[in-house]
């Protein structure tokens, strides 16, 4: 697969160069990331951002490497830093090319030199490797590389007065310990020289625009130095929190080949050949991680600042794990979240690695049941169902009887909940921007879907499922009359009560209703499903996602930018979300009878993201886009459910590569039940022989 490339025209100025960022992960939630010109614009940028042992979260350890090449006549600096009112050095002036295939590669051409720089991480290790290939026609040129380090939570900035470092230097590198207790090492085949100094008042433009702290100091413990010979010289620098053995150039090359081969194996295992699908597949890997403390598989919701979120994980499971044939990891994720189920609630989030889960969500548990059904559809692993069945039962039982946060089934069989529990959960202080307390349309679509899934899967296991069918019938008999709005020919978003106890129906046109069409089990007649899709297309569809609110609404905000207050106000009031296109594509194809035209329409829509791969987060998909034209990206540069749902929709609904069991028909249920009975009988006979 060919990589993604930027030429000098996209790299020639600071303003142009900082528009694009790159990120690579290590499978543990750690990462390396910066802009394509090497200028840090976020507190989250760094060449080694890790979750060291016993840390409460992720920490920036190696911020950057400042390279200099000197001759008797010239000094070339390849780094880029922003200080107050100035950019210095301006290494982008020497930068001729940036390529990502699969890892970042920079090509600099300072004077008579050509410098090729690669960055990659060792999988399942807090280790970043930087490789240099330098071509020179000059005698006695000197290379110096200055590491800029830190030791701080990646959400914040640090000043020299709050941090200090001790170092143990040796010819090939240095062991470092920070005053806040973190240790890591830098090693190289260049010679290390201790020369401690601080870099003061670096500025991060992205944080300044977001209204956050944007100035800090970085420490440089010394520098690495070596002479360049005529021809090609090769060097490396490794930053790691692990106790790694001494490495030479051959071993580092082997690590690089192993990292590339791992990426190639992901492609081979996926069995996909479509070029756009393979680009999306590449983007999935960064989000699939193991918790560094527990070793459990999970999903990082978004980079740079999110941890693992239950809702996002369940929505993303098909695209990140099932389509790429990472089925054992998918099973581990489901079992992990099932382990933390409390009173029928799957965790909303784990605030930091090793932190206690927070349960304030109404939909994560319903998405969990959906994810279990998708896992079964892809694997046919009905033995897994027996392991997970108790969790499914607990979710439905607690939702039916009532659980925390006001989540309970009303007398009409519909689910109601307290404020700020759906995916539209932004808060300003203690005020929920879109509270949505009451009965939300997508929650009840998910509730019906979960009940029908429980009935189907329970039948496979030989369970009594009459209650689930009865509840599903009750939901279906009340959903349309409760949520259908004949004036807008679509669904009310929310049904609730005012302070006087009067029923209030919110006519705001939001994308949540699309799930009443897109989920596997739905309740509305075909004409109303078609009307919903038509309304969503007319009022909410953009090239990069569905708007979270119609532009006709008085609360609509078409721009997502500025400080936290401004962004949070717009977050679910007009901002467009790529992940919602997954449901839209499925619904569109369904109501258009899976016609050839509907396929080509949706192919064109999804392939529009091909251009986005070269903006914002390089090779990935952003969290959100402006609702207004030209729909500029914002939020996280890489979002799990953005990538996962675009990938899933493209593979399943455009390429029409469907899972093993696309639908669980009565015939399939009967066959599987018979197989279960036969396995149980065989197991009994084996046990009899054993005894």
From TrEMBL:
<dbReference type="GO" id="GO:0004134">
    <property type="term" value="F:4-alpha-glucanotransferase activity"/>
</dbReference>
<dbReference type="InterPro" id="IPR006451">
    <property type="entry name" value="Glycogen_debranch_arc"/>
</dbReference>
<dbReference type="Pfam" id="PF06202">
    <property type="entry name" value="GDE_C"/>
</dbReference>
<feature type="domain" description="Glycogen debranching enzyme C-terminal">
    <location>
        <begin position="283"/>
        <end position="648"/>
    </location>
</feature>
<protein>
    <submittedName>
        <fullName>Putative glycogen debranching enzyme, archaeal type, TIGR01561</fullName>
    </submittedName>
</protein>
<dbReference type="InterPro" id="IPR012341">
    <property type="entry name" value="6hp_glycosidase-like_sf"/>
</dbReference>
<dbReference type="Pfam" id="PF12439">
    <property type="entry name" value="GDE_N"/>
</dbReference>
<dbReference type="GO" id="GO:0005980">
    <property type="term" value="P:glycogen catabolic process"/>
</dbReference>
<dbReference type="InterPro" id="IPR024742">
    <property type="entry name" value="Glycogen_debranch_N"/>
</dbReference>
<dbReference type="GO" id="GO:0004135">
    <property type="term" value="F:amylo-alpha-1,6-glucosidase activity"/>
</dbReference>
<dbReference type="InterPro" id="IPR008928">
    <property type="entry name" value="6-hairpin_glycosidase_sf"/>
</dbReference>
<feature type="domain" description="Glycogen debranching enzyme bacterial and archaeal type N-terminal">
    <location>
        <begin position="20"/>
        <end position="233"/>
    </location>
</feature>
<dbReference type="InterPro" id="IPR010401">
    <property type="entry name" value="AGL/Gdb1"/>
</dbReference>
<dbReference type="InterPro" id="IPR032790">
    <property type="entry name" value="GDE_C"/>
</dbReference>
């Amino acid at each position: 697969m060919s990589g993604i490339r930027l030429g000098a025209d996209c790299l020639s100025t600071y303003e142009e160069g900082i528009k694009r960022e790159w990120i690579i992960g290590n499978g543990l939630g750690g990462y390396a990331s910066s802009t394509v010109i090497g200028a840090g614009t976020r507190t989250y940028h760094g060449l080694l951002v890790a979750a060291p042992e016993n840390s409460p979260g992720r920490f920036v350890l190696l911020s950057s490497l400042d390279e200099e090449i000197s001759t008797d006549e010239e000094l070339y600096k390849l780094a880029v830093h922003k200080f107050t009112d100035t950019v210095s050095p301006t290494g982008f002036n020497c930068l001729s090319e940036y390529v990502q295939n699969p890892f970042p590669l920079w090509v600099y051409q300072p004077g008579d030199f050509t410098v090729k720089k690669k960055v990659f991480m060792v999988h399942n290790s807090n280790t970043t490797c930087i490789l240099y290939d330098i071509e020179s026609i000059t005698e006695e040129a000197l290379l110096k590389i200055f590491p800029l380090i830190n030791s701080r939570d990646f959400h914040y900035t640090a000043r020299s007065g709050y941090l200090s470092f001790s170092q143990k230097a040796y010819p090939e590198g240095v062991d470092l310990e920070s005053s806040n207790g973190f240790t890591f090492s830098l090693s190289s085949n260049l010679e290390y020289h201790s020369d401690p100094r601080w870099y003061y008042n670096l500025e991060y433009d992205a944080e300044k625009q977001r209204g956050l702290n944007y100035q800090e100091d970085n420490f440089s413990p010394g520098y690495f130095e070596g002479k360049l010979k005529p021809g090609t010289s090769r060097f490396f620098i490794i930053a790691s929190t692990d106790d790694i053995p001494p490495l030479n150039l051959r071993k580092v090359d082997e690590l690089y080949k192993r990292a590339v081969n791992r990426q190639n194996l992901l492609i081979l295992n996926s069995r996909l050949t479509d070029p756009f699908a393979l680009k999306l597949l590449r983007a999935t890997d960064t989000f699939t991680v193991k918790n560094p403390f527990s070793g459990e598989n999970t999903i990082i919701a978004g980079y740079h600042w999110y941890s693992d979120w239950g809702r996002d994980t369940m929505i993303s499971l098909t695209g990140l794990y099932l389509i790429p044939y990472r089925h054992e990891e998918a099973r581990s994720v489901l079992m992990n979240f099932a382990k933390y189920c409390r009173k029928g609630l799957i965790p909303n989030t784990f605030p930091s690695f090793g932190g206690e889960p927070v349960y304030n969500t109404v939909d994560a548990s319903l998405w969990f049941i959906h994810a279990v059904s998708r896992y079964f559809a892809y694997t046919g692993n009905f033995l897994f169902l027996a392991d997970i069945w108790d969790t499914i039962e607990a979710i439905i039982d607690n939702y039916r009887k009532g659980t925390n946060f006001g989540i309970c089934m009303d007398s009409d069989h519909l689910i109601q909940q307290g404020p700020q529990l759906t995916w539209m959960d932004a808060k300003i202080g203690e005020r929920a921007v879109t509270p949505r307390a009451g009965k939300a349309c997508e929650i009840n679509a998910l509730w019906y879907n979960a009940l029908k899934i429980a009935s189907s899967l329970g039948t496979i296991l030989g369970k009594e499922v009459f209650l689930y069918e009865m509840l599903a019938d009750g939901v279906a008999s009340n959903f349309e009359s409760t949520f259908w709005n004949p004036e807008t020919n679509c669904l009310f978003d929310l049904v609730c009560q005012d302070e006087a106890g009067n029923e209030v129906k919110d006519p705001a046109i939001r994308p949540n209703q699309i799930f009443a069409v897109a989920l596997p089990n739905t309740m509305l007649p075909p004409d109303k499903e078609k009307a919903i899709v038509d309304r969503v297309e007319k009022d909410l569809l953009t090239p990069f996602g569905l708007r979270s609110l119609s532009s006709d609404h008085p609360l609509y905000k078409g721009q997502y930018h500025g400080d936290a207050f401004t962004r949070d106000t717009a977050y679910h009031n007009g901002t467009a979300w790529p992940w919602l296109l997954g449901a839209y594509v499925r619904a569109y194809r369904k109501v258009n009878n899976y016609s050839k035209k509907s396929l080509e329409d949706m192919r064109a829509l999804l392939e529009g993201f091909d251009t986005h791969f070269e903006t914002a987060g390089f090779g990935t998909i952003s969290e959100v886009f402006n609702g207004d034209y030209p729909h500029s990206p914002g939020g996280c540069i890489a979002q799990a459910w953005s990538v996962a749902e675009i990938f899933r929709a493209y593979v399943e609904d455009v390429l029409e590569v469907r899972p093993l069991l696309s639908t669980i028909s009565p015939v399939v249920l009967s066959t599987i039940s018979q197989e279960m009975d036969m396995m149980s009988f065989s197991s009994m006979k084996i046990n009899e022989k054993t005894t």
